[in-house]
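# step 3/5: fold
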Amino acid sequence: MNDVAYDVFLPVAAQPSVKSLVAQTQRAEDLGYEMAWLPETWGRDAVTTLATIAHETVEIGIGTSIMPVYSRSPALIGQTAATLQEVSDGRFRLGLGPSGPIVIEGWHGQSFDRPLRHTRETIDIVKLVLSGETVDYDGDIFNLGGFRLRCDPPEVPPGIDAAGMGPKSVELAGRFADGWHALMLTEQGLKDRLEDLRRGAELAGRDPDDLRVNVGLGCCVLDDAEHARDLARQHLAFYIGGMGTFYRDSLARQGWEDVAMTVSEEWSNRNREAALDAIPDELLDQMSAAGTKEQAKESIERFANIDGVDAISVSFPRGAEQEEINATLDALAPDSTA
């Protein structure tokens, strides 16, 4: 197996408190996970939560996966990255992405317009902010100038990763970011997108090996293996069917169009059980690591052995209870997967 890092993707679903997220990160730190990533959807904001986590941990890296580029100005994102790098003593990494139209339009009330250009210009501006130099930028979307950070910039700027699921968004990560966050991809889908990442890096005259590729993998390991797989299947069905067309179209692009369309249709008609039944075991195993510890480890190893993968992010089904999250975190800790 490739020498990959094991990260943890903190639960996207609502948690009892910020303290519970701190406790999960402390547990991950004790178990040897390298990074703890926090998504930002419509629950607790990532900035306040990560600042709290930074003060309550010592070694584990912290990062946003992802911070939507539509919900803050690029300059504010740059200020935030500099501040989180300071309060974490250099352990922060910034994950950016457009999110999806259902969140950006339905929650933030913003038009999901030109997501690739919006992401590219945000990365450009954030890098300028973090340099400490005066920011002068004349883009298609953003025009700003005359200001620089009022505090010292980070001695070591945090890495900036871009999330992406489609060919052009992954190519963008290869051209302009320091890493790529892969999510909801099959093994073949991941291999195809890695080609896009390499092409983007080569277009920019960069070495693809310098980019950190992080693969988010839905994981659930329980004594009741079937329940673990049920939770993972529910998670997939929610994203394919309940989050607009974004994840549905991504799955279709990976060769599972019939499944994607059936799940989406059944979910929209509130036929939840039919939507779950439409996800075959083969696809479940292609997109998650769920069941017994041995089953989950086998799935993780297949992804870890793909050339170009640097880290596996152990993430959890949105319906998992705290005890189930902890059980999975413990079972898949780096030392236990050796």
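# step 4/5: annotate
The radius of gyration is 19 Å.
# step 5/5: archive (pending)
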